[in-house]
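EI: anyone free to look at a 165-residue chain?
SC: sure, send it
EI:
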Amino acid sequence: MKNINYNCSILFSLFLIVSVGCTDDDSDSASAVANGKITATIDGEDYETDAFSSYVASENRTLISSTNETSSLGDLTISVPLAPGETGSFNTLDNPTEGIFVTYSIGETDYSTFTQEAFTVEVTEYTDSSISGTFSGNLADIQSGGNTTIQVSNGSFTNINVVEQ
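SC: here you go
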């Protein structure tokens, strides 16, 4: 029961972060233009899409999100507790309360690290204007309670523009 409450609080936190980062103000939408790339192998399939990033100062959290127009690729979001100028390597199993989240949605299926799957994100460069790094690990199907997993390998995010929210 404690694990379910923890997972629910993480899901709510991620929803809150994404909601705070979204805006209807046209002036912000122009600055969130994708200029970087996310690439990976997800469940054996090549994945490459444009991406953008936003730093939510009030949460000290950076969100890296795909902006693909092709629904067959799915949507990927990586969330790390870093501010511009910081770098680091994070593993969900080393410290599950550390606050990294990874979600991948394709069709009607949502995968995530919320079921405490092993996943590593390494931010290798983070300036005031861009972020780069690597990622890999396993994601579990939320709807199946983690009974179905997919592997993510050779993941990278490169020179993704960062906009402060």
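EI: The first strand starts at residue 36 and ends at 42.
SC: 👍
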